[in-house]
């Protein structure tokens, strides 16, 4: 799984021209909205331009194909949301991270992701974008949390690679993807207090 990521530096587009960063937020919001509404199969470059209120040339200068457009969008997902909290305690850091994840799954990014999941297995480029984009972002952020907690003596050196560490977001993601039940901050707190922290304490 929210606020859209802020692009701080323009990257050369797949179409060869540099981007105008001032339009990125509007265009990405349009892409996510259309993915949620119509899915990857029905998404068109022209529809993105219309939804974003920009000229078609603005879209085609940035991306040559629909796949390029979606891959590029996926690659930047969650960069702002997974923001490496540093509250001074493992419990505080995990609570902030889980709350951030709740925001993602309940926002435009989450809706677009749900729509894309059935498409990803048939498009290796999309799968790679998910692995190298949002999945990598969250893994790195949780890795930083484990590093800080280890330095404070809250966990042992092997915890970050343990099965227990893999459970941190698993219940939230399962509830979101499979049950259709609400994923809110109260549920995240319950998971943290009754599942995650007891596992952490048992590992010390």
Shape: elongated
Averaged pLDDT: 87
According to CATH, the fold-level topology of the domain at 90-203 is: Tetracycline Repressor, domain 2
Rg = 18 Å
Give the CA-CA distance, first to last residue: 30 Å
Region (Disordered): 1-22
DNA-binding region: 44-63
Biased composition (Basic and acidic residues): 8-22
Keywords: DNA-binding, Transcription, Transcription regulation
Describe the structure.
GO terms for molecular function: DNA-binding transcription factor activity; transcription cis-regulatory region binding. It comes from Blastococcus saxobsidens. Keywords: DNA-binding, Transcription, Transcription regulation. Residues 8-22 have a biased composition (Basic and acidic residues). This is TetR/AcrR family transcriptional regulator. This protein is an all-alpha fold and 204 residues long. It has a domain at 90-203: Tetracycline Repressor, domain 2. 64% of the residues lie in helices and 0% in strands. α1 (24-42) packs parallel to α6 (108-116), α2 crosses α3 (56-62) and α5 packs antiparallel against α7.
Briefly say what this structure is.
The chain contains 10 helices and no strands. The protein has helices at residues 24-42, 45-52, 56-62, 66-75, 90-105, 108-116, 124-151, 163-166, 170-179, 185-203.
């Amino acid at each position: 799984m929210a606020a859209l990521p802020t692009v701080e530096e323009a990257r050369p587009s797949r179409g060869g021209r540099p981007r105008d960063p001032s339009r990125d937020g509007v265009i990405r919001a349009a892409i996510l909205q259309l993915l949620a509404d119509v899915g990857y199969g029905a998404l068109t470059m022209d529809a993105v331009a219309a939804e974003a209120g920009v000229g078609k040339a603005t879209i085609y200068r940035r991306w040559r194909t629909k796949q390029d457009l979606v891959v590029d969008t996926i690659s930047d997902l969650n960069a702002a949301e997974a923001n490496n909290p540093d509250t001074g305690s493992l419990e505080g850091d995990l609570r902030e991270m889980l709350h951030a994840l709740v925001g993602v799954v309940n926002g435009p990014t989450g809706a677009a992701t749900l729509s894309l999941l059935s498409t990803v297995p048939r498009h290796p480029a999309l799968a790679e974008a998910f692995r190298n984009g949002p999945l990598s972002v969250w893994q790195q952020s949780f890795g930083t949390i484990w590093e800080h907690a280890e330095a404070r003596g809250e966990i042992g050196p092997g915890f970050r690679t343990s099965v227990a560490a893999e459970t941190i977001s698993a219940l939230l993601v399962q509830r979101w993807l499979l049950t259709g039940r609400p994923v809110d901050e109260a549920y995240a707190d319950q998971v943290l207090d009754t599942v995650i922290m007891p596992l952490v304490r048992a590992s010390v």
